């Protein structure tokens, strides 16, 4: 929303100290016109696109409390529109500009797209799996034109993501506190910070640092994806 964009703008200005380096655009990227507005505004201001970071994403809860296969197709469509379709649209419409600049694409995926399952957010997991596959497929296509495509797959990160799902601040605090207290959820001991994910994105977007990485997804999750359910139980205690 506008407030979040202004917050991001303030953070960028703290580094660049110049309005000329910032372009704030409010648009609905699940629509073709919204993507056009974003891309055209960027070209109008900067004349080129060096890096495309596909960071917009969302998960939706069913208003009737349904989970898994019972969740309706409307939720599926909403989820895939923002997590998959918008990324395809942006990459297609930025393609010529990225080829001209020999630029970079960094998609923001999630460990939810991995081989494990989450019944509560099936469509979200499916969309991130699709995004991971898209990253690989588009990477092979665009590297022929000098453009790299990679992604980062965050785990649990302290952002406004849960708030956007309708969870109040108090509930979000309880959730992160619980995660922090249970190393069987986050082995490193705490949710990630947005800056930690931004550093991975910066690494992937910097050809001097990561030029030989193509079509890969770097997992940044504090070890969460390494934990299997069976490993949260002490085998010694079980076998006594």
UniProtKB/TrEMBL annotation:
Single GO term (MF): oxidoreductase activity
Keyword Acetylation: no
Domain of life: Eukaryota
Pfam family, one: adh_short_C2
Keywords tagged on the record: Oxidoreductase
Name of the molecule in the record: Uncharacterized protein
